[in-house]
Amino acid sequence: MSDVLTTAVLVLNRHFQPVQVTSARRAFSLLFRGAAWAIDESGESLDFWSWARLPARKGDDLVPTVSLVLRVPRVLRVAHYDRVPRTIIHLSHRNVMLRDQFQCQYCGRTPAPSELNIDHVVPRSQGGEDSWENLVTACRPCNLKKGGRTPDQSGMHLIRPAARPRWSIVREIMLDGAGRYKEWEPFLKVG
Ligand SMILES: [Zn+2]
Question: How far is CA 44 from CA 50, 80, 82, 86, 107, in A?
Answer without folding.
Answer: 11, 18, 22, 25, 50
